[in-house]
Amino acid sequence: MQDNEYAVVTDKKEISTATPGEPLTSSAKFMRGHGTYIENDKVVSAVAGVVEQINKLVTVRALKARYTGEIGDVVVGRITELAQKRWKVDVNSRQDAILMLSAIHLPGGVQRRKSESDELRMTTFFAEGDLIVAEIQAFFADGAISIHTRNLKYGKLRNGTLVKIPPALVQRSRSHFHTLPCGVDVILGVNGYIWICKHTPLEVVEANPENIYSSQNDAISETDRSNIARVANCILALSHQFVHIHETAIVYAFEASLPFAIKDLLSESVANEIAVETKSKLQ
């Protein structure tokens, strides 16, 4: 049996989805990883998920699995609880992530040791229900994720909307912060939480560091609102068709969606049409 009988895994490192029991490759040069097993000298998928290939190692990440973080991952999360010198954050993992008081920027970008007065003012930094973007910096002994926001590109999120998709569909890249041609900023959280908001130049953020913990949304024009809603529905449409989410795919999907009304983008027929056109452009 030849390798080319299976389009899932090849020397070209194609990425696709697989169903339980689906043969991935029969070549002896590939090694099986998590989510696979050997049957009749073939590497077979054990779960429904996304096929990943690192050199000669083949794994399948389950679509419905909880997010398992890696150090350096950019994640979007929601504050669920305030505790002593820390916040608990829902990042779509098996347990809440931990954001320590010592792991945040103080208003104005001041770098100093956190004092008791800072602990008393924790709710002025992040309150329950706030959405944040952060980076994974370590893991605790019990497996809990430790995150930080010690950078102006991280912190509280405003002026936008949250979209949730399976983490396996978010494609890892060098940067997960993107500004689309339509004037919308997108943060692709590796944990499957995606933030879509009005574009704010980094220079504006750096010029007003005291506003990094503001909970007040800016005035958003009707055009920006429409573009945010269209991008959000495009991402959901692609995820429903199991298309990997990255900047290029979102741009192509946005262009393909323009003939349709925003509210129609989530209908099965329109979502399928957008996904097909997006896939054809990505090839």
TrEMBL record:
What biological processes does GO assign it?
CUT catabolic process; exonucleolytic trimming to generate mature 3'-end of 5.8S rRNA from tricistronic rRNA transcript (SSU-rRNA, 5.8S rRNA, LSU-rRNA); nuclear mRNA surveillance; nuclear polyadenylation-dependent rRNA catabolic process; poly(A)-dependent snoRNA 3'-end processing; TRAMP-dependent tRNA surveillance pathway; U4 snRNA 3'-end processing
Q: Where is the K Homology domain?
A: 160-201
Per the record, what is one GO cellular component? nuclear exosome (RNase complex)
Q: Which domain of life is it from?
A: Eukaryota
Gene Ontology MF terms in the entry? RNA binding
Q: Which residues form the Exosome complex component N-terminal domain?
A: 18-53
Give the matching Pfam families: ECR1_N, KH_6, S1_RRP4
Assigned keywords, A-Z: Exosome, Nucleus, RNA-binding, rRNA processing
Cross-referenced SUPFAM superfamilies: Eukaryotic type KH-domain (KH-domain type I), Nucleic acid-binding proteins, Ribosomal L27 protein-like
Q: Which InterPro entries match?
A: Exosome_cplx_N_dom, Exosome_RNA_bind1/RRP40/RRP4, KH_dom_type_1, KH_dom_type_1_sf, NA-bd_OB-fold, S1_RRP4
For this protein, the record's CDD domains field holds: KH-I_Rrp4_eukar, S1_Rrp4
Query: Subcellular location, in the record's words?
Result: Nucleus
Q: Where is the RRP4 S1 domain?
A: 66-137
The similarity comment for this entry is: Belongs to the RRP4 family.
Name of the featured protein: Exosome complex component rrp4
- Record lineage: Eukaryota, Fungi, Fungi incertae sedis, Zoopagomycota, Kickxellomycotina
